[in-house]
Design goal:
The protein contains 25 helices and 30 strands. It has about 850 residues and is α+β, with helices and mostly antiparallel strands. The strands form five sheets. A nine-stranded mixed sheet has the order 24-22-23-25-26-27-28-30-29, with helices on both faces. Strands 14-21-20-16-17-18-19-15 form an eight-stranded mixed sheet.
Length: about 850
């Protein structure tokens, strides 16, 4: 379409610019869905460890999102490539149908009513009561530990509320009016939907069931005519608690009897906050996969409360129970408003107190009659007293040990001490650090042990130990020894071939949401990526211990860390829903297409969703690379860059690339460039030391060789390119084509804060000299690129290189280098007089001495080679 457009005599520059922008928009949407799919794979792999409660609602939600983003990738690639690979649509259709068929499997629990008492609740009912309620039921019914008296209002109540109100279609209509790019539409839809909930009445049978359950609770607790205050806590379904962080859903403390139904409506309506709507749109979560259950618990008149961890939350070398305690209600401990007392106890059936630190707790949160929460000053003598006596602390620690045994993994527990001296548990969840949730679990430096490397990102937390084995791009993986630690410059999915033999992975670069990280989690291999210096600091053959919790690599074996190597929790692994998730994982997570050069790297080789996204991700680079051919016949809609460069450079702004590029014929200055990748490239090209205004020194033998080659070559055999160069730019994207004389170079790059999206693709070809000199030049260029961590291929007079999945700083540094390289190598073919010039030219550049004479010395400040 673009080529036909450009051949017209009367070209429409605005239409042509729009088509370029459409190509970029399709590419960007493809990258976004690839990134989202990698996040989904990460979450699915974490759930497959078996230590987190989930239900069929989670399976359905994840399956829907996986299908949504996989199809979105295929559709955008189809548009980007003008339908070049119709087989991709067939593969996507087959995989989508298989994934969807798993999601159609019905729930395993039997139908439930509106109300469930906690003795009847367990993990098996998570789809009816949500994760919080399911855990409370497990604590009371199966672990046999005390919780406040109460009941769960199930999702059947939510569904009945929607049916009775008759506004489900209106909810869908309002959500359809949301524009993901316009926050005001989300606010408007949220207000409209929440108004529907708040103005509606619950159906009579639901209202009666809730109030009857409350009356039975009051009777059991011996409450007077004024009733019993309760806490009402959200327990969302669908996203499996992914939306419940940061106060997104509503929970209400100290609720009076006359406010129960009002607060129930408010909690249901909180499913439709603007943030929740935006999240579901972005993640592709169907509205049908969300629902709300509510926990109704006796409001504990807390003398003291706090948080307890069955092992230290951050220092994983400390296996003892840690208890934090404050006076009054728990929010002051959870939110860090008051410095708590700290108790540290052994994890035994009869715990021993190892440490007790008592703080001055001069404030507390208390519940007052009438549903009021009040901040209260604590009297001085009481403020300095410990909240728990030794027997209470020991009892709490024994509860923590029992819960850890029950769930097969460390626990994060909320508790309260009532005015009668009784201890109750309010909530329990797995103790681990999710992305963005705060400090991750770590181990402190092990005393007396040498740390060889510190830093990096944990793609798969854990401990591994063994001899270091360096792996380079051309290494033979078949010889990788059993039980070694793989150390490489960059993560790569091709390591899947040997992951089952690896103790740990440590790389200079890589993304925790990338393909390699996904494979590491699938195989359970401790992996530390993006350390920057692993290949320099870790020597071949030396024994090391990798702590991928804290980002440290130690010399030798470290027994204190090796004892942390243990089986992951298996709490969910004996349930039917886990088996369904495992089958979903088999369709989604395995990666078989690891080598783009393999003959199987094509649509017919895709066996999983991961294969499909890997193939499209790789092929999309080539499609964007080819845009440079279209830009060469740009018409009149580009703007010229006014800069001291030895090339005529025109820019096409796809959005956010220039500060002010209004109009179609004006010139722009370098300081008007806002595109991150192009700014980096331009910085290299404009480096003063390159002296691009000076003529290139000429070796006469080389000069006559070039001239004779031009005169003797058939005109059809030596293609001369135009004298103009083009750059398509946006805030994070660059497609640069430099076509000068008889050679051309094309560069395609993305540079942003999402490491997994970043890449640089570079190609150089041609020249006016004979084939021998042209080949010498590309080999010199290849040596330079390899020294800067590019994957490089050379064939004849062409060099192709790729640098990908590094952070923005590293990506920009390579673009700066390529800018210098493009200027440095101009007219270089005539100076490639002998085989030694390959090394002399490349070494000059690597030494940052850009004045190569071509007459013997390596460069102006070096002696003979």
């Amino acid at each position: 379409m673009l080529r036909r457009l450009f051949k017209r005599k009367n070209r429409d520059p605005h239409l042509a610019a729009g088509l370029f922008k459409a190509k970029y928009s399709q590419f960007k949407a493809l990258l976004e869905s690839n990134s989202e799919l990698l996040q989904l794979l990460t979450d699915l792999e974490q759930k497959l460890r078996g230590d987190t409660v989930f239900g069929m609602a989670y399976v359905r939600s994840q399956a829907s999102r996986i299908v949504f983003h996989a199809v979105r990738m295929v559709n955008n690639f189809d548009k980007l490539s003008s339908g070049r690979l119709p087989a991709l649509r067939e593969v996507a259709g087959r995989l989508s149908a298989e994934v969807a068929s798993l999601a159609e499997i019905k729930r395993h629990e039997t139908a439930v009513g509106y109300i469930l008492p906690y003795p009847a609740v367990s993990r098996d009912l998570v789809d009816s009561v949500g994760g919080k309620n399911a855990n409370l039921g497990e604590i009371a019914g199966r672990a046999g530990l005390p919780i406040p008296d109460g009941f769960a209002i199930t999702t059947a109540g939510y569904e009945a509320f929607l049916r009775h109100g008759g506004f489900l279609d209106e909810v869908k209509r309002l959500e359809l009016e949301v524009d993901p790019a316009d926050p005001e539409t989300m606010v408007a839809a949220s207000e409209g939907i929440q108004r529907l909930f708040l103005m509606a009445d619950a159906p009579d049978d639901l209202a009666q069931a809730i109030l009857s359950a409350y009356a039975e609770l009051c009777a059991r607790r011996g409450a007077g005519p004024e009733g019993l205050p309760i806490s009402m806590r959200s327990s969302a379904i669908g996203e499996d608690s992914e939306l419940s962080f940061a106060g997104q859903y509503l929970s209400v403390l100290n609720v009076r009897p006359d406010r129960i139904l009002d607060n129930y409506r408010r909690i249901l309506a909180s499913l439709f906050t603007p943030r929740a709507i935006a999240y579901r749109l972005h993640k592709g979560i169907p509205a049908e996969d969300i629902a709300m259950s509510v926990a109704c618990l006796e409001m504990v008149e807390a003398k003291a409360s706090g948080v307890m961890y069955s092992r230290h939350p951050f220092d994983l070398l400390d296996e003892n129970v840690l208890i934090n305690a404050v006076w009054g209600l728990g929010p002051y401990a959870v939110d860090g408003i008051v410095t708590p007392d700290v108790y540290r106890l052994t994890k035994e059936d009869e715990p021993t107190i190892l440490e007790m630190r008592v703080a001055v707790k001069d404030r507390r949160l208390v519940a007052r009659p009438g549903g009021v929460l009040e901040d209260e000053r604590v009297p001085g003598d009481e403020a300095a007293r410990p909240c728990l006596n030794e027997d209470q602390a020991r009892l709490l620690a024994s509860y923590a040990a029992r819960l850890e045994r029950h769930y097969h993994c460390p626990q994060d527990i909320e508790w309260a001490l009532n005015t009668e001296g009784g201890l109750v548990l309010l909530q329990a969840r797995p103790l681990r650090a999710e992305a963005g949730s705060g400090p991750r679990p770590t181990t402190g430096p092990v005393p007396g042990r040498d740390i060889l490397l510190e830093g990096g990102d944990a793609a798969c937390p854990g401990i591994g130990s063994g001899p270091v084995r360096h792996v380079w791009p051309d290494s033979d993986l078949a010889t990788f020894p059993e039980g070694a630690v793989l150390v490489a410059e960059h993560s790569s999915p091709k390591y899947a071939l040997i992951l089952q033999r690896i103790q740990a992975v440590v790389t200079n670069a890589g993304s925790v949401t990338g393909h390699m990280a996904s494979l590491a989690r699938e195989y359970g291999v401790p992996s530390l990526l993006n350390t920057r210096t692993a290949t320099d600091m870790l020597k071949e053959g030396e024994i090391v211990t990798v702590d991928a919790f804290s980002g440290r690599v130690y010399r030798g074996e470290v027994p204190e860390l090796l004892r942390l190597r243990q089986d992951k929790g298996r709490f969910m692994k004996d349930t039917p829903v886990y088996e369904i998730l495992r089958r979903l994982g088999d369709l989604v997570t395995p990666l078989n297409l690891t080598d783009p050069r393999s003959p199987d790297f094509r649509p017919e080789g895709c066996r999983t969703v991961h294969d499909l996204m890997r193939l499209i991700h790789e092929l999309s680079y080539g499609e964007m690379f080819a845009i440079s051919d279209l830009a060469a016949d740009h018409g009149t809609f580009a703007v010229k860059l006014a800069a001291a460069l030895p090339l005529d450079l025109y820019l096409i702004d796809l959005g956010g690339g220039l500060t002010d590029a209004g109009g179609w014929t004006r010139r722009v200055r370098p300081d008007q460039v806002t595109s991150a990748p192009f700014k980096a490239l331009l910085a290299g090209m404009l480096l003063p030391e390159l002296r691009h205004a000076e003529p290139r020194p000429v070796d006469m033998k080389g000069f006559f060789s070039v001239m004779s080659q031009q005169m003797l070559t058939n005109p059809e055999g030596a293609e001369r390119f135009g004298d103009k160069s083009y750059a398509l730019i946006s805030d994070k994207y660059l497609n640069f084509s430099s076509r000068v004389g008889y050679h051309y170079s094309v560069l395609d790059a993305y540079c942003g804060q999402t490491m997994n999206k970043n890449y640089v693709s570079f190609q150089f070809k041609g020249g006016a000299a004979d084939d021998v000199r042209k080949n010498r030049r590309v080999r010199a260029i290849a040596r330079i690129l390899e020294e800067h961590d590019f994957n490089v291929e050379v064939a004849g007079d062409r060099v192709v290189a790729r640098f990908q999945k590094y952070d923005a700083e590293a990506t920009a540094a390579r673009l700066d280098m390529l800018g210098r390289l493009l200027i440095f190598t101009r007219q270089m073919d005539m100076l490639m007089i002998d085989e030694g010039s390959v090394r002399r030219v490349s070494q000059c550049f690597l030494d940052e001495d850009y004045h190569y004479e071509g007459n013997g010395p390596s460069c102006s400040r070096q002696g003979q080679d």
